[in-house]
């Protein structure tokens, strides 16, 4: 799938090349919305796909997955020879599809991660929200502490993020546990 | 795309379910879409970005000003202090929201285009933030791709099929949206409620206390639903719908609600420990006729307008 030309972001109407200059004060010809359009050299770059070359002689190394294709590069993980079709380039490394898939499943390629769980937000929610109903705190406060210890070193957000939510969740959970202990002690003393 | 220090490009654009934010990496743009407990990431290599299109639009301040106006009018029209207080609070909140909305600048839609995708950038929803975003992004992308010369652009434009305004193909016919039956349900409910309000205001405090809150809640809820689903409706039925909803808002604070409220207060004053639920509601004949009458009138008018709208659509 490739896109030719540029369209209005409001109505998806194709914008004629006269509007590509990027000057302010231009409007979409269809919906009339004021536009702020910036075009970059990648638009004029031709799309070139590299096709695998066939093996010319018997002595030439061939691709592990396509015996008829000439080897282009080895996989940095398993060392198998790969044709240009099987080569997956990630920053600083070349991987075959199998190693790439294994790395993705194991979340070893950080730059390709598409989602992450925010354990600090979960811990904070676990500490704060049940407190409004009081009794669930008996379970959720210790669970919060367990969650903090369990996920202290788990990867957090990709952009910079502090551990302040973990600290807050821990503080709230400790306060809740202290309160419960004091309450039980007070009940015990009053009954005696 | 190497892991590097990220530079924050936008503030968090918060929604009910989370937020979205843009970050600039060493060689890519990172869009973070958060749903509270999970963050999802989209990366765009700076070398692959073909264009960024920002279009201004969506002036919600008009609607907010309208809400403020309605609340002011309803507040002044209201006879009770409860009604004035209610509309004052709603109107003040709407005023604050409108002022904040205006202060944040015009809304916009930003789309980032690569060779294989067009992605809407949710973090950029206001023109000032879009300008600040472009001020950082344009130099970063030009550093990765170089500058686009006028000659290259002209050559590419020449190769792209020209789209002159006169040659633009006509827009496709609008989709025939289903108009739904929620307004009809509302008007039917108003018809039923005209009888129930009449009964409630003619009977005792206990009956009124059981009936009226349910009536008000049902009318308000279905009124909101009908307004939300009225985009495809004609101007006439929309006008009747808005008029009916205004009456629904005003009635508890200025008409039937006030009549029942004074009787309820009397019942509690006479015997605070055991309220006299059998005390009759002292609603005047005028109040009774008005409270039941506007409901019946709106119901008949609304159902008639909806019927004609459906007939016109069918033809």
Termini separation of chain B: 59 Å
The H/E string of chain A reads: EEEEEEEEHEHHH
Q: Please give the number of β-strands of chain B.
A: 8
**Based on helices, strands and strand pairing, what is the structural class of chain A?**
alpha+beta
**Overall 3D shape of chain A:** flat
What is the number of domains of chain B? 3
Q: Quick gist of this model?
A:
With 192 residues, chain A is of the alpha+beta class. Chain A is built from four helices and nine strands. Chain A folds into three domains: 6-43, no CATH class; 51-114, Herpes Virus-1 (2-Layer Sandwich), CATH 3.30.40; 119-191.
Report on the structure:
- The complex is a heterodimer of chains A (192) and B (315).
- Chain A is 32% helix and 13% strand.
- Chain A has three domains: 6-43, no CATH class; 51-114, Herpes Virus-1, CATH 3.30.40; 119-191.
- The longest helix of chain A is centred in the C-terminal third of the chain and has 28 residues, at 164-191.
- Chain A has 192 residues and is of the alpha+beta class.
- In chain A, strand 3 (26-27) and strand 4 form a beta hairpin.
- In chain A, the strands form four sheets. Chain A has a two-stranded antiparallel sheet. Chain A has a two-stranded antiparallel ribbon with strand order 3-4. In chain A, strands 5-6 form a two-stranded antiparallel ribbon.
- Chain A has four helices and nine strands.
- Chain B is of the alpha+beta class.
- Chain B has three domains: 7-55 and 114-143, no CATH class; 61-103; 182-314.
- Chain B contains nine helices and eight strands.
- Chain B has helices at 61-77, 81-103, 127-145, 150-159, 182-202, 205-228, 235-254, 256-270, 285-314, and strands spanning 7-8, 13-14, 19-24, 28-34, 38-45, 51-56, 108-113, 118-120.
- In chain B, strands 1, 2, 3, 4 and 5 form a five-stranded antiparallel beta sheet that branches.
- In chain B, helix 5 runs antiparallel to helix 9, helix 6 runs antiparallel to helix 7 (235-254) and helix 7 packs antiparallel against helix 9.
- The radius of gyration of chain B is 28 Å and the shape is elongated.
- The mean pLDDT of chain B is 84.
- Classes of the chains: A alpha+beta (192), B alpha+beta (315).
- The interface between A and B is large, with 53 and 64 residues.
């Amino acid at each position: 799938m490739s896109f030719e030309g540029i369209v209005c972001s409001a109505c998806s109407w194709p914008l004629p090349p006269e509007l590509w200059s990027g000057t302010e004060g231009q409007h979409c010809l269809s919906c009339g919305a004021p536009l702020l359009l910036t075009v970059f050299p990648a638009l004029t770059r031709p799309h070139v796909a590299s096709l695998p070359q066939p093996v010319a002689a018997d002595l030439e190394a061939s691709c592990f997955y396509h015996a008829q294709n000439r080897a282009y590069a080895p996989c940095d993980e398993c060392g198998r020879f790969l044709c240009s079709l099987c080569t997956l380039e990630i920053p600083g490394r070349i991987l075959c599809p199998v190693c790439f898939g294994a790395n993705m499943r194991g979340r070893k390629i950080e730059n390709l991660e598409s989602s992450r769980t925010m354990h600090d937000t979960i811990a904070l929610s676990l500490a704060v929200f049940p407190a409004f109903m009081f009794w669930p705190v008996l379970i959720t406060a210790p669970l919060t502490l367990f969650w903090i210890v369990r996920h202290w070193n788990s990867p957090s957000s990709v952009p910079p993020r502090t551990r302040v939510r973990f600290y807050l969740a821990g503080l709230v959970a400790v306060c809740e546990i202290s309160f419960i202990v004091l309450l039980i002690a007070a009940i015990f003393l009053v009954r005696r | 795309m190497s892991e590097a220090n990220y530079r924050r490009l936008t503030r968090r654009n918060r929604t009910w379910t989370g937020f979205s934010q843009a970050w600039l990496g060493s060689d890519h743009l990172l869009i973070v879409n958060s749903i509270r407990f999970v963050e999802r990431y989209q990366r765009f290599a700076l070398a692959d970005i073909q264009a960024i299109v920002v279009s201004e639009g969506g002036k919600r301040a008009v609607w907010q000003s309208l809400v403020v106006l309605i609340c002011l009018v309803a507040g002044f029209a209201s006879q009770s202090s409860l009604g004035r207080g209610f509309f004052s609070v709603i109107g003040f909140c709407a005023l604050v929201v409108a002022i904040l909305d205006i202060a944040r600048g015009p809304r916009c839609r930003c789309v980032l285009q690569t060779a294989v995708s067009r992605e809407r950038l949710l973090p950029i929803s206001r023109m000032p933030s879009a300008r600040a975003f472009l001020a950082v992004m344009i130099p970063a992308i030009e550093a990765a791709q170089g500058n686009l010369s006028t000659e290259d652009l002209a050559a590419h434009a020449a190769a792209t099929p020209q789209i002159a305004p006169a040659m633009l193909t006509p827009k496709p016919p609008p989709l025939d949206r289903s108009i739904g039956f929620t307004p009809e349900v509302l008007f039917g409910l108003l018809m039923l409620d005209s009888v129930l309000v009449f009964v409630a205001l003619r009977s005792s405090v206990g009956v009124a206390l059981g009936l009226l809150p349910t009536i008000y809640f049902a009318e308000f809820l279905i009124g909101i639903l009908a307004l939300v689903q009225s985009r495809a409706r004609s101007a006439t039925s929309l006008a009747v719908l808005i008029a009916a909803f205004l009456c629904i808002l005003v009635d508890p604070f200025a008409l039937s609600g006030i009549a029942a409220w004074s009787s309820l207060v009397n019942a509690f004053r006479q015997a605070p420990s055991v309220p006299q639920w059998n005390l009759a509601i002292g609603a005047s004949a005028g109040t009774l006729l008005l409270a039941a009458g506007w409901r019946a009138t709106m119901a008949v008018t609304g159902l008639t307008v909806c019927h004609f709208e459906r007939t016109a659509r069918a033809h």
